[in-house]
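Translate sequence into structure tokens.
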Amino acid sequence: MFDVIYLSFGLAAWAIVGYKSVAWFRDRSNTDLGLACLMTGGVATVFLFSAPRLYRAFDRLVGVANLAMVFLYSSVVVFAAGALVLLLRWTAGEGPAARARARSRARVAVGGVAVLWAVAIAGFAAGRPDAVEHPRDFSTAYTDSPGVMLFLVLYLAIFGSSLAGLGTLCPRYAARLGGTHLARGLRVLAVGCWLGLVYCACKVIGFVLSWTGHPALWLSNGVAPLSASVAAILVLAGFALPAAGPRVAAWRRLRRLSPLWRTVTAQTPEVTMETSTWSVRWPFADLEWRANRQMAEIRDVQRGIRRHVESDAVDVARERARTVALDDRQLAAVAEAAALRRGLENRAVGHVPVHGADSVVVASSSEPAELGAEYEHLALVADVYHSPLIETVLTELRQRSAAARG
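Result follows.
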């Protein structure tokens, strides 16, 4: 079971690494993104080597028992080194001089971590006397070996210090970014870092209890790896959110906008652009572009039919909507949906009112002028487009039009 769980998370993590690496290759100047790729790769490798079967298979291949633990912890140290470099970059300040200082300090920090880790590996080599595999209980199997303890303590010191720094800085950095997906990702990453510190604390407490003659295997071999696994998942989620969040949001917008888009463009196909072959074959391709395109084409339709909409259509729709106690956003959506349906209806029969509407785009006064708000507004229009309230408004508009012509 552990093999399936860890390998599944490892493969998912490497998929995230691949996705981020493609983005980084497109923008090599984005050092933070490159570091995120490196750190995510470290977490992915940890998951792979945490699978007991892969752990033992690797050791059989190289002929050295528990050498997989060195690779596993080395991957954690790679993550920690990347975190330290991020910390130095984020706290360096602005300007070329500050960036130069950050690069210099980063080189020193990475060099220091490399030296400490070399000492740790030497301790591992000197203190691992047997050939018994310990993929699940390595830290408790060698509590009497000073060399292995040196290896583990240096590992926890490097890892814990990077987690504490990153966990402290991420929320501060996220506070500057508002409600963006990057800010959410940083907050999730911070939670993962703090939970990772729980893992470090469990390991240290376990060491102390073992040295005092009161071993707590449930803490070192149970609670600690569980907290580390959950922490790693949160860290991966934090790295994935900035990329996945906008695409999930775009997919939701597409799902809500598509019925309205198909309805209005079916009657005005001249406004639509040709769909790419890749988008047809893979429904999750170009999500943001397709969402933007659908919104733009709906707006094109609205601009094209406004002369077919009676000038009082929006006011009539608002009056009827107020009778059912809708809020401002819903009132705006009902008015716009009614105007859109009326315009398409009149255009289909070639009717042009004497007094046409100046605009059929209706926005609530409380709605901020931003792209996300416009998407949400159009999604509300799509939600009410075929509602009974709209049918009531259209019936009244038809009766008024018929009376005016009569």
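Note: The first helix runs from residue 2 to 26.
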